[in-house]
Write the structure tokens for this entry.
Amino acid sequence: MPQPVEEIPVGQGRVAMFKAVVSGDPAPTVTWTRNKGDTSDPEQYKPRYDERTREHVLEIVNVQVEQADTYKCFATNQFGKAMCTASLSVFAVGFKKKSKIVKKRKEKPKKEGEIDPKFWEVMLSSKKSDYERICHEFGVTDYRWMLKQLNLKKKEKEVEQAKVVENVENMKQIEVKTSGRAEFEFDMKLKDTNSQIYLYKDGEMLHYGDGTDDSSKHNMKKSGDKYKFSINNLGLNDGGLYQVDVEDVNIISTTLAIPNVEFDGMLKDAKVVEGQDAVFEGVFSGPVPQITWCANDISVEHGDKYNITVSEDKLTHKLVVKNCKKEDKGVYTAIAGIKSSRATLAVDGNEGADDLARRLAEEQARLQREKDEAARRGKGTDGRGDGGDGADGRGDGADGRGDGADGRGGAADGRGDGTDGHGGFGGDGCGGDATGKYGQGDGKVHFASGLTDKNALRGKPAELVCKLNTDKFDGVWYKDGNKLISNDGVVISKDGCTHKLIIQNCKDSDAGLYHFEVNGCKTEAMVRVGDLPEFDPDALQKFSNPVIVKAGQSASFKMSFPPQASLEIKWFKNGLELLDGGSVKVVKESNHSRLQIKDCLRSDTGQIKIQLKNPFGSIEALSSLIVLDRPGPPRGPLEVNENTSSVLELKWNPPKDDGGSEVTNYIIERQQVGQNTWKRVGDISANHLTFRDRNVSLGKRYIYRIYAENLEGVSEAMETEKIMAGSLMFPGPPGTPKVVSAFKNCINLTWTPPEKDGGNKILGYQLEKRKKDTNQWVTLNPLKDPIQDLKYAVKDVSEGSEYEFRVTAINMSGPGEPSAPSMMVCAKNPNMKPHFKDPEDFMVVRSGNSIRIKINYEASPPPDITWLKNGEPISPWNKIIHADGTCTLVIPSSKYSDSGVYTIVAKNSIGQASFDIEVRVTDEPKPPGPVVLEQVVYGKVIITWSPSPDHNKDDRLHYMVEEYNSNTRIWRRIADHLLCTTYTTSIQPGQEYHFRVYAKNDMGFSDPSKSPTWGVNINKVPMSSTVSAVVNLERPPSILVPLKLHTPPKGYQCYMTCAVRGCPSPYIAWYHDGICINSHNNYYITNTSGVCSMYILRVQPEDSGEYKVVAVNPFGRAECSSTLKVKGMTAAVFI
């Protein structure tokens, strides 16, 4: 539970909210109560739990004044109960000032993060000793900043006050007096005696009297320059901020807190001896930050004379009156708002102590006189005289007392002791000498050991024992001067020289002074009767339950017991005493003691013992502290049960300390040596202490971390040493590298794999080179990037230099032995006939653009290059650019006349090569001529147009026809790749048609040529009302437009088109070199209104040959043919 909350002020009609954070295992049950009423009404009190903030909340809606009270939150589970309290004060909301004051008193809205303005008003009128308390109440933590700001505000306030007053001093904050009246006062000298003085409470102006009328609630009494304000008949609603203003200037602000609490423990009367401390203690039903203490109706403060303390829960307030004098006696009062408690203090004089000192001085003088007399009589330096005829050397002084010369003597009643501490109590005529033996008056009897004081337990037997030097004498026992016999509840016995007095059942009446007397010698002892300390039974039962906390939390133990005199309290942990200080706090009160251990560690787990001890014995109570924490790391030594190329099995021991709760599982992480990342590879239950890692690689080294986990968290790791998977088995040497080819900038090598792979897969190879006349082998690839193939192109060579090479195989264990070196090879190009690399044999260039024919070749030695056009040398105005393995012909601005076949000829001493490139210089075609529409057959329209001016000079030119009708209202392509100048299409009656024709070539489209409108009543074939004669339209097939010669480059598209007429429509068959291709998938064949088309998407050399179209109907047959020639390579188009 959190620390108790101080008083919470809430405006009437608003919402009050209490919040508590509760922890415990198992989860506690939380309930809310109040001192003066219940919280069962769900309409007014709404408890809930906030999952997000993990807070238990009590919400009070529409708060009223009668709900002001102390509220308590209880958290309970099977291990105990915790409580937290907070006070709620309710004040009325609203301001009722005069108009000129309202502006001054209007509160500025408090912005988030800013300090409440009331804080500064209170601080400006407070004493320095109250600064810390006020800062705590308003939540101000930066003390240094506060002081700096306060000094600035004081200067500002002094400037304001100087307008209406000459000075203000001796300000006393408001406090409640023993009479039940609250008062505050100050000295003030007004500049204008007619200035108005106003009193406010929480911003509301109050009317006050002059103090002559006892019925007045608020009063101001003026005596000279002293102004005293008072509030009579205090109630809970009188709490708040009181302010005194002169005109519009604030003079003093003070806060009156009236907590709604009761005294759970009233003050008790105290009686002390002069010089001792007196303690008064008050216990409240709810937390109270500060109360008023009064001595004889005068308030007192913490200082040299008075020590005022408050417990952490602010429930217990204590006043200690130090070094009491007679003038300190009187009535002491504790005041908390409208509640008070009184007690009296009595101080006794110290006459007894003075008498004792006087008697002690007289006795010391008498003993010194006796010592001097004994020294005069005795002759031995150790205190033993020969005493005339005393053979044993004991002195025989006239009064029977003998003392050693070392100054040890008896007391005034004749008691003496020896150096060894065994001297008893001598009577008249018997005294102890320096050896501890007892002297004798008559030289015959003395005490070998005397009586010792006895603390006897009530109801138990007690025994007094003394021993004489002889068994010939019987002595007499006395109690408080009265002779004792065996039938007086005591048993008197003698056993040789030992004399015993046994009290069979000790009672209070048995306490007193006992002495044993024999033959003029006596010994005395004091018997005291009492009881052992005792614990409160209920507290003892609770104390025996173990306290379980988590690491970092605080553990508290409390033991109650009845108040007992001379009681010594000690706390122990694992047999060692705990003292107050550091993380240990020990509180010892008259009726209870508390132990708190803060910030508990796991090592604090152990036995807790409290011991109560008085003169009659001691008792102990045991409890135990269990601190739950993360477990310790798993213990070694780590064992590797299995180690193969693919599996590592590890074994470890459980942690020495499980953290107070059982280990639930183990977490295993792994890092491969040479890498920086850790990977989680296992999470196993606590009953397994082994782990098999099946994802390891032979020859790789790994480090493992093993963690233990319980409910409190994860332990520190146990980290292993480096562990290698399996044993290293390296591959054998590969075959000797062989040179496949050598060039000036590259040497191509190949080799064979090793005969022995070391039992593992070959991951790759590492290649090395050595330059002639050097001894250094240089790696060409790192081990982390092995060569996967059995060949490699070495490009890191210098032209003309000689090299040899060797190769090494790599497996999981690492690199093996290198191969034997290859033969020396020189980095230079071999002699070869010129060879062209992937040339293009066709290109189209837009007229006016430059022609750039770039040819890549290989040849050694470098060849001579010649360019020809159509078999003739090119113009000297053309530019030829030579580069390494490249030759480019550049014609800056092309013309139609630059079209032709260009030939490159490369020749060296080894041979010659040539290559032809067809270049076509062209431009967008010009549009076709006028378009004419004609209808010969109903429902058909023949579209005819004049050829484009470029028709004859561009053998790749063709036409495209588009249609637009009044129904669809869009342009639609109806024919393409037409080599003829006519096309027949179908039309629908009742619609208007528009047609347009484009010329197309390799450069693109021409502008369209548009037809006239073909409409409903335009250009129709006249229909006679009566049929005068039968028209016969049947005719044999005929070729209107034959096929044309086509020479497309390889990979280019090709369209072949012809026009056929016949009635009925003839059957059309296409043939390639005499083979019908109508059903062949490589050809797309169509026949639309007599226009027969065949389309090849990408022509290949095998598509070359003769193509023939055959049209057949019942009346005859017609055919036409043409040749398709495919030019070698793919063409390029330059625009």
About this structure: The helical segments are 99-105, 117-123, 131-138, 143-161, 351-377, 537-543. DSSP finds six helices and 85 strands in the chain. The longest helix spans residues 351-377.
